[in-house]
Automatic annotation (TrEMBL):
GO terms of biological process kind: polysaccharide biosynthetic process; polysaccharide transport
Superkingdom assignment: Bacteria
Record-linked Pfam families: Capsule_synth
Name listed for the protein in its UniProt record: Capsule biosynthesis protein
InterPro entries (UniProt xref): Capsule_polysaccharide_synth, TagF_C
Amino acid sequence: MHFMTPLDLISNQKILVQTTYHPAPHLETEMEIVERLLAQGNTIYWIVCESDFKACFNNPEHTTMDCKVCFSRVNKGLDVLKKSSKHSENLHILKYRQFLTLEAFKKSYFQQDLHFSDIKELKAFHHKSYDSGMATASSLVSYTRNHEPDVSKYQDFIKRGLLTGGYLYETFQLVLDTIQPDMVVLFNGRFIENRPLLRVCQERNIKYATHERGGKINNFLFRINSIPHSIETISAEMDYLWETARNNRKEIGKTFYTNRIKRVEDAWYSFTKEQQEGRLPESFKHVENKKVITIFNSSLDEYEGLEGFGPYFYANDNEGIQKICESLQNHPEIKLYLRVHPNLKGLDNSQNKYLKEVIGSYPSIEIIPAEDSVDTYALINKSDIVVVFGSTVGAEAVFAGKKVVLLGRAAYENLDSFVIPKNHEELVRILMDDQYVFPEINPEDPLKYGYWNESFGINYNYYSPINLGKGTYKGKQVKANFILRELRRFIEKRKKTIQ
């Protein structure tokens, strides 16, 4: 039986689709969306970059060969759609310079001499009403994997990012005036190259949809009037999917957790696959009669630039951990661990530096580094209290029946099986008071979150994934021109040799 998705309900409309991120499965997801919309009688205007983005998620350094390979692969995707799609005559290709050239934008709008002393100052910058600085900061953080990058070192990137953001913001005003679409479709909505379109749609009250990876490898996310990371949208979606489930929702919800414990890589890479099953820190031999509290932090670069994310009452995870260390340092009856998020492995960034130099100076806490083979799940099971800042491990600890304290925004925050303190003082009371009563865990709560993870998204009709970053569209891989790909490979190899 075919269940109608939000995508299936869009027909006989004029739709603008922006392509910005070409690696699989994202270009193929766009192709899938376009082909399905064409079949439903919609007219599609696909706006394509021809090196117009001077900084983007896929090509942050704006290298010529990356631009050529990207454009070549997008062109190949367009050829596939034109040859095999139903109503392909209703697919129209747009270029940015048809509406506004970058040179004309520079003359009319752009402030040339922009300098920022830190990331906070950059985030506050606006081009008219558009939060161009926040989008540029978000892309810079993702590029450097550092939530507090040295902005003086990346002035060129920042200048190109702000130039691109302002240019696209002005260009999209003209595109929307000309096309007057009923709906706009874009990738993610977080970065330099797609945030301007998101903001123009929001300002003009134009319906939009964002796409991203889905809950499983064989599906994709398509959210109308919402970005992929919206906690409010996810909470509503979680409730809806649970209430309307027509299958064994509890067993499916349980599968999410058992697969993570088994390190199955289905929706995304497993961060725990290098860990040694059952391994605990050596100090566990000496924690008898102590209360074991384990903090699981997040990698700060993952939610930088996202609206509404982060801790409830701390500036960030680092500050929260430091305050917990200070409050518990005269309590030898408590054994405090910090399990550093495995996604921080090998990074020489400001978060890891702070953890090593500042948090590591407190004798009240033992840090388990990101690369350590201690088993996260064994640690959860042996802890008396688990403290999380929003990572999935909070729901996993609830599933394991543990006492959980949540300190930051999370997709599962509306479930009732953990404690959310109002401030630091209340947190300390919860951690120290042996008589504190944690809420009774409703066994359905973690299963509801697990079921959502296993169920959200729309199944592909035309794209077949081979792995997380490779797949076929209608049986064939969509590849950029062979000569361009080989030339890029040669240039990259030569660059590494010189370095």
